[in-house]
Design brief:
The protein is mostly helical. Helices cover 80% and strands 0% of the residues.
Length: 60
Amino acid sequence: MTNILTAIGSIVLLFVSFALFAYSFGSGEPNALVFFAGIVLMTASFGIPMTVLGNSRRTW
């Protein structure tokens, strides 16, 4: 169950980061804080599953 929730959460974080990137470039002037937040969320969307699934005791 943890693997499924981790995968879903990762996909949600990835889509939120895409939305932040689109907003930062679509607004009138580039917004560096929103862009940086998108980078942080995208990094988290890849890092969290590797950490959670890498520390799981079950093997595939």
